[in-house]
C-alpha cells in the first residue's frame, strides 16, 4: 500500500489574459486562429510529494499560486498539464464561502457539505452535534449563512471541515478571520488530527505558525517550487527573501557562486589615489549558511599605502537586513594589535559559537583610525549570511537561560 497522500508531477495551470473583454470573443470566432490573449502561468511545471501523516505548510507571497494549487488538489480546478494523485478523503477549507449555499441555514449547510464528501444523512446525524458544539454560534445555526459575520462563517466552515474525519485536511488562510480563542481551539483540534495520522496542508502568511505546527514546508514563488523540506529551514529562507524585498538569493550554492565572482571582480579593481590611506581589498566567510552555535570566520584583506597609520583599527559588525545593529566589536576596543604599516595584510575575525537564531544577516567591515572617528574604508553589507535551524527558540539571539518552578 502506497504511503503517498498527494503526488504532483509536472503540474501547470495556465490562464489566458485579455486586454479587453471583446478580445475573448475575437479569439473564439477567429477563422485564422489569431491570438488576442497572453498566457499567464499560475503554476509552472511543479512537482512534489506529501507522505501520509505529514503536516506541510505552504508559503509564498500573494499571487504565488498557493490557492490555485489547493483548488487543483481538491478538484475545484483542473490542471492545464501534468498529473496529480490524491489518496484519501479530502476535507478542505478554502476561501470563505466555498462549498456553502448562502440561502441555506447553518444546519442545512452542514448536511450539504457532508453529502458532497460522500456521507449519508445517517452518518452526518452522528456528527452534527460535535460540529455545532465546535462552531459555538448559538441560535445562528438555524439562520441563513448569508446573515453571518465573517468570524461566524469561519467557525462553522472550520467545524465542518475538521469533524468529518478526513484523510487529508486542507486549510487555506482560514484562521486569520477567527478570534484568538477560536484560533487556539482550531490549532488544538488540528493537533489531534495530526496525532491520528491525518495528512494536513496548511497555508498561512503567519510563518511562525508554519514553523511551530508543520513538519515540512513547501515554498512557491511565481508558480514555481523554490524549496521543500524541514519547515524551519524553508521558513528562514523565505523570511530572508521577504526581508530583502524579494532580492535574496534563493539557492545558496548559486548565491555563494555569485559572491565569489563578485569578490574576484573586486580584486581586479585597483583604485589607489593620493588621498587614499588604505582600503579593504577582499572579505571572505568560512560559509554563507549557518546553524545556531556554528563558528563564524571572516577573513579581511586590506592594503595600507602609507608607511604607517597611527591608531589604525579594524571593525566587523553584524546587522539585520533592515539595518538593526546587532553586534560590532573592533580591534581598538578589544585591545588587539593589527598590522598598520605599508603593504598587504590579512586578519581573521572569529566567533567560536554564533548565537544568532534563524534569519538573514549582514556583515559590515571597516578600517579606521583615531579610535574609530576617522573612516579609512568601509564595506556595507559586505557579506550576507543565512542562519537556519529546526524550531527551538524565537527572536534574533539565543541567550543562555533556565526555568524553575516556584509554586
Properties at a glance:
Coagulation Factor XIII, Chain A, domain 1, 5-stranded mixed β-sheet, 34% strand, 27% helix, Rossmann fold, 6-stranded mixed β-sheet, 407 residues, elongated, alpha/beta
Report mean pLDDT, rounded to a whole number.
84
User: How much strand?
Assistant: 25-35%
- Stretches where pLDDT is under 50 for at least 5 consecutive residues are none
Global shape: elongated
Order of strands across the biggest sheet? 5-6-7-3-8-9
Number of distinct beta strands: 17
Fraction of residues in H or I helices:
25-40%
The CATH class of the largest domain is Alpha Beta
Rg over CA atoms, rounded to whole Å, is 28 Å
Largest sheet: 6 strands, mixed
Helix/strand class: alpha/beta
Amino-to-carboxy terminus distance: 51 Å
Can you tell me about this structure?
With 407 residues, this protein is an alpha/beta fold. The chain has 2 domains: 4-243, P-loop containing nucleotide triphosphate hydrolases (Rossmann fold), CATH 3.40.50; 252-387, Distorted Sandwich (Coagulation Factor XIII, Chain A, domain 1), CATH 2.70.50. The chain has helices at 21-29, 66-74, 106-116, 121-125, 128-135, 150-162, 180-195, 207-213, 231-243, 252-268, and strands spanning 4-18, 37-51, 55-59, 81-86, 90-93, 168-172, 199-203, 216-221, 224-230, 278-285, 289-290, 296-308, 313-319, 325-327, 341-351, 359-369, 374-387. A 6-stranded mixed β-sheet has the order 5-6-7-3-8-9, sandwiched between helices. The radius of gyration is 28 Å and the shape is elongated.
